[in-house]
């Protein structure tokens, strides 16, 4: 370290003064905030902080400085160096029993570095250790973060079903704790998983959902990231105009916020689209701009990717010297960053360039090196490609036996590779089917539960309404019973109090008849008072009928009952000049209360009053199945079918202008018939008029 460096001197000056440890802690945090702005400055702060912490002999701050340097190396693409720094930091933190939040951050760093080195099982191991600490302290935010990170590891392992499962777990926790940015990150990762499954439209839709959340949160870095992912989806769908639109928007925001990593990334993506469109001039322009941005930011990993892109473009253009130059730079960068996992790919690129340049010796050497590395690391795709490339080099060199041997190996491994791919695809499809089947079953069960809950709620509401209705009905019934009781009492009082004076009038009329002899006026008084006495005698029975109570029944002669009724109407029949035609046998005996005569009185009274133009009333009976049916028919105007039932209801009355009005009489007649287990009705008479009928049991 050069202590004469002006920036370091400036940093030393910043630290000097009281409470060195607190100032150094803030200084380290300032370096962390510089990571996405000026990576070089952040690394300088990390190096200086590490030296100062060691001078202060503060192990805690030394570990934090190592954490900062790890992040700097990781961002620069020097992943192996970053991993070593994080592992050293973890040793120090465990040595001093650092707070859990510090340890989990370091575990997360180590896991991230292993992930970038394709050491996926190691990555999962450290994430699992971090997850346990978060769970022990019930730190929901941390649980969601690590669960989301584990989803990405499973994605890279090609286990998409587990990736989506962990994404959904993290989504559920983040939604529960209201962490909307966490929700957006999980959606982003889920979208990336669907991209790997080549479900491009679904991936784009999920990234759009993440974009909306990030726009609401005004998270510009997140917005740029989501826009870029949507653009990449459109690029994969070969919708290049839409892809360029989204990527250019993402690029502008990345430049605006000074995020060098995203800026370099999107410049490179745009260059790749122009490469697909064979617009090599624009492709080179954007790749060179991306390369400059990566170098400024010290982003070695991005720089390597861009160099390979430039090499491929120049190879397409047939500019082999330029292609070779950039491929060599990419190779050197990979050696510098320690990301040896990419070396076989770079060696194959160099071999292909040398083959095109017909430098067969170098082509063979690079292809052989690529084969050895790929075989050692178990990289089947690169191994297959190396054998094919070597076969072509041997053919060009006329080394036929070697060419044949390499081609056979290529064929065998390619078959194995295709079979493995097929097996993985089938396993993925099976896992996806099982997941979707389980989700469908769960959804059906949920919907059934929802419907059951709704149904139970409705039944409960109906039961409550029924209980209220029952209570209301009970109160009404009690009031009605009380009212009926009062009515019955009043009827008894009225009947009792009227019987005496009516009896006196009837007795006096009989005495006058004996003294004066025949006199129509006296006869009318006598018959009317006798009828009134009969009504009063029937009043109590009629109240029982109305209440539905049982009434006493005697054997009655039907013809005698009707003849008694007709005697009461003799004067009216004479005045209306109406004839009674009766067909009632003498021997029809039926069991009834004398009150039954009220039915015939109502029928005959209505016939006289409303059908007198017919000049005749027909009365007949017929015994059918233990019942007697009596009909009283007139020749008046026929009642319409709509009114035939209504006229037997209480207070229903037809238009009097048509002489078909009916009062309470028919309603009373119906009640009396029902009290005798009979029924009343009306039907049309022929050729006109109506037949009022009653059926009574014998």
Give the distance, in angstroms, between the N- and C-terminal Cα atoms.
Answer: 129 Å
Number of strands: 7
CATH topology of the domain at 550-697: Heat Shock Protein 90
> Percentage of helical residues?
over 70%
Q: Can you tell me about this structure?
A:
The protein has 698 residues and is of the alpha+beta class. It has a domain at 550-697: Heat Shock Protein 90 (2-Layer Sandwich), CATH 3.30.565. Helix content is 75%, strand content 6%. It has helices at 6-15, 20-33, 39-56, 59-76, 79-95, 100-116, 120-136, 140-156, 160-177, 180-196, 200-217, 220-236, 240-257, 260-276, 280-297, 300-317, 320-337, 343-356, 360-376, 380-396, 400-516, 520-547, 558-568, 570-576, 597-610, 665-675, and strands at 554-557, 579-583, 589-592, 616-624, 627-633, 679-684, 690-697. The chain has a five-stranded mixed beta sheet with strand order 2-4-5-7-6, with helices on one face. A two-stranded antiparallel ribbon has the order 1-3. It is elongated.
């Amino acid at each position: 370290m050069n202590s004469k460096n002006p920036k370091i001197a400036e940093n030393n000056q910043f630290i000097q003064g009281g409470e060195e440890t607190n100032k150094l802690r803030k200084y380290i945090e300032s370096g962390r905030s510089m990571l996405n702005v000026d990576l070089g400055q952040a690394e300088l702060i990390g190096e200086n902080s590490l030296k100062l912490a060691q001078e202060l002999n503060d192990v805690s701050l030394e570990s934090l400085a190592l954490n900062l340097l790890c992040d700097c190396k990781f961002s620069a693409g020097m992943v192996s160096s970053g991993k070593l720094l994080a592992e050293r930091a973890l040793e120090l933190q465990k040595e001093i029993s650092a707070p859990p939040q510090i340890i989990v951050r370091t575990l997360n760093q180590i896991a991230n570095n292993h992930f970038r080195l394709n050491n996926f099982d190691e990555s999962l191991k450290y994430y699992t250790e971090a997850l346990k600490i978060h769970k022990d302290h019930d730190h929901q935010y941390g649980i969601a973060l690590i669960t989301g990170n584990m989803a990405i590891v499973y994605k890279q392992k090609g286990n998409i079903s587990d990736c989506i499962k962990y994404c959904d777990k993290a989504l559920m926790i983040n939604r529960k704790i209201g962490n909307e940015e966490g929700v957006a990150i999980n959606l982003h990762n889920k979208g990336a998983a669907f991209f790997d499954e080549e479900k491009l439209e679904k991936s784009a839709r999920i990234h759009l959902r993440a974009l909306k959340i990030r726009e609401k949160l005004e998270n510009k870095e997140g917005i740029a990231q989501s826009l870029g992912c949507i653009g990449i989806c459109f690029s994969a769908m070969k919708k290049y105009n839409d892809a360029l639109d989204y990527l250019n928007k993402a690029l502008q925001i990345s430049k605006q916020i000074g995020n060098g990593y995203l800026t370099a990334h999107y410049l490179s993506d745009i260059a790749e689209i122009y490469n697909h469109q064979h617009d090599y001039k624009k492709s080179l322009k954007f790749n060179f701009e991306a390369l400059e941005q990566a170098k400024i930011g010290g982003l070695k990993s991005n720089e390597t990717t861009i160099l390979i892109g430039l090499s491929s473009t120049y190879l397409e253009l047939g500019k082999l010297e330029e292609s070779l130059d950039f491929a060599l730079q990419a190779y050197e960068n990979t050696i510098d960053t320690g990301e040896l996992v990419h070396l076989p790919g770079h060696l194959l690129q160099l071999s292909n360039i040398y083959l095109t340049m017909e430098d067969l010796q170098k082509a063979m050497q690079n292809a052989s090196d690529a084969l050895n590395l790929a075989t050692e690391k178990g990289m089947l795709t690169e191994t297959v490609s190396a054998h094919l490339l070597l076969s072509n080099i041997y053919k060009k060199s006329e080394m036929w036996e070697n060419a044949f041997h390499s081609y056979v190996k290529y064929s065998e491994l390619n078959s194995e590779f295709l079979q493995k791919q097929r097996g993985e695809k089938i396993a993925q499809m099976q896992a996806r089917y099982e997941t979707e089947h389980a989700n469908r079953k769960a959804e059906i069960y949920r919907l059934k539960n929802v419907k059951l809950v709704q149904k139970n709620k409705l039944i409960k509401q109906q039961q409550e309404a029924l209980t209220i209705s029952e209570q209301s009905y009970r109160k009404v019934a009690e009031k009605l019973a009380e009212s009926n009781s009062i009515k019955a009492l009043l009827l008894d009082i009225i009947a009792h109090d009227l019987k005496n004076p009516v009896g006196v009038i009837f007795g006096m009329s009989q005495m006058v008849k004996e003294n004066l002899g025949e006199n129509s006026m006296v006869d009318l008084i006598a018959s009317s008072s006798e009828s009134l006495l009969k009504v009063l005698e029937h009043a109590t029975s009629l109240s029982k009928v109305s209440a539905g109570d049982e009434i006493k029944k005697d054997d009655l002669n039907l013809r005698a009952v009707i003849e008694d009724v007709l005697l009461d109407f003799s004067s009216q029949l004479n005045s209306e000049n109406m004839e009674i035609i009766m067909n009632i046998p003498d021997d029809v005996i039926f069991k009834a209360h004398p009150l039954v005569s009220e039915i015939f009185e109502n029928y005959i009274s209505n016939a006289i009053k409303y059908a007198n133009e017919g000049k005749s009333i027909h009365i007949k009976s017929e015994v059918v199945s233990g019942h007697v049916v009596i009909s009283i028919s007139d020749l008046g105007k026929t009642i319409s079918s709509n009114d035939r039932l209504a006229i037997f209801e209480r207070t229903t009355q037809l238009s009097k202008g048509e002489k078909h009005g009916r009062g309470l009489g028919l309603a009373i007649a119906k009640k009396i018939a029902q009290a005798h287990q009979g029924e009343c009705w009306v039907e049309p008479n022929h050729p006109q008029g109506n037949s009022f009928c009653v059926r009574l049991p014998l």
